[in-house]
Amino acid sequence: MHNSIDRVPIVAIVGKPNVGKSSIFNRLIGKRKAIISEEPGVTRDINYETLRIDQCTLKLADSAGFSVVREEIHERTRVLNEQLISQSSVVILTCEVNSLDSEDFAVAETIRKSGKPSILVINKVDNEELMDGFYEFFELGFQNPIPVSASHGTNFGILKQHISDILKNEMLVLDEYSLEEARKHVSFDEELSSGTDNILWTESRPDRKGIHVAIVGKPNVGKSSLLNLLVNSERSLVTPNPGTTRDAVDEAICHCNTVLTFVDTAGIRRRSKIRKNVEFYSILRAEKAIKSAHITVLVIDAEQGITHQEKRIADLIVNEKKGLIIAINKWDLIKGVNEADFKRDFFNFFPHISFAEFLTVSAATGYNKEKLLNLILKVNNNYTQRIKTSSLNAIARNLSLQNIRITYGIQKSTAPPMFEFFIRGSGKNVENFRRFVINSIRKNFSFGGVPIEVHLRKE
């Protein structure tokens, strides 16, 4: 049994003295509990407050400032802070804009050594002019620092969302524990708590009413234009400038008696190139859209060709185990290129998503619009289909590779399809055998556009 299940998760605010830790603490809890002063070192002990962010109950901790001064009081607070970090589920490293120094680097190194999930917050970014000083803090080596102003409340919604996302991701590893134990530490909406199916996964499991489709891709490949085409409206703002879409946009239509809810997301850039905070938030929303979708449509600009950025997005979709359709947009602008050759080159570049469905489209002319809508229905049918155990075993029992063979198999779940096979024999080729089984399933059943999980168990 993990000890972490025995307590409410702690989120610790740490940093050198006088960077606004207590102000951030007060802003997050919504009241003036911690004493605030311009004098460094006012906070001596750890200040705790229990609160709820989104669906997560947590204990927020305001710590004394780390200091390199070798006095007894500073040594005591250093020990307390290191103990706090070791007990925490999330650590918020707080710095002050235009004050980066060796103490910040020392605290950052302490957090890194702890291995705890962390968020870098740059406080006192009270206006746009101070953003230039914000970029210096990328030197600390933390991803996606968040500029905030505790005095004005700027970007605290983003900070809360980031805390919530980390805690929920941490909770996902607790699914082996009993429902009774989990209930002690997670707040559930009453309408979701009647059964175990939604427990701990209310953000990542999609609504089963209709089909949720996330339209994703790097900036300026035509995602919004494609959405407008599919829903027959100007629902999303379209401009020639990359990054116009900042938030996720939902629109539902009925196609073949099925409700399709489309989510047009902001273009996903490499995180290392993100500088504007609003763009950082767009990334979070895009990733959440993928998590909440059944099917994803990865849009690629035919003129721009294939880039490594598409590989990163595809990896994200594969990790989330979503149905996948590759939509090559602006095909009407391509001359002298054979579609079969383009498709072959694409999957040579992306062999790990060879299961994906592939379609050339044009948002400008409407080319293959109906095919794309029908393909979404087809992939969703594949995503949710269940193979009869007798049909599965008629194929599985004939599968063998060297010394390994299958005695029995079942489909454990759908969306995505997951299979479990009991095997006899041993050898070094178990992973090769797994791939062999997956390919055999695809050959005998319709799973186009769908990732398949196969688990092998020795009898």
Write the layout of secondary structure elements.
Layout: E1 10-14, H1 21-29, E2 47-53, E3 56-62, H2 72-87, E4 90-96, H3 102-114, E5 118-123, H4 131-134, E6 146-147, H5 156-171, H6 179-183, E7 211-216, H7 223-231, E8 249-255, E9 258-264, H8 277-292, E10 295-301, H9 308-320, E11 323-329, H10 339-349, E12 357-360, H11 369-384, H12 389-396, E13 400-401, E14 404-413, E15 418-424, H13 430-444, E16 453-458
Parallel strand pairs: 1-3, 1-4, 4-5, 5-6, 7-9, 7-10, 10-11, 11-12, 15-16
Antiparallel strand pairs: 2-3, 8-9, 13-14, 14-15
Question: How would you explain this protein's 3D organization?
Answer:
The chain has 459 residues and is α/β, with parallel strands linked by helices. The protein folds into three domains: 3-172, 3-Layer(aba) Sandwich (Rossmann fold), CATH 3.40.50.300; 211-384, Rossmann fold; 389-458, K homology (KH) domain (GMP Synthetase, Chain A, domain 3), CATH 3.30.300. 33% of the residues lie in helices and 21% in strands. It contains 13 helices and 16 strands. The strands form three sheets. Strands 2-3-1-4-5-6 form a six-stranded mixed β-sheet, sandwiched between helices. Strands 8-9-7-10-11-12 form a six-stranded mixed β-sheet, with helices on both faces. Strand 14 (404-413) and strand 15 form a beta hairpin. The protein is globular, with a radius of gyration of 25 Å. It starts with 9 loop residues before the first strand and ends with a strand.
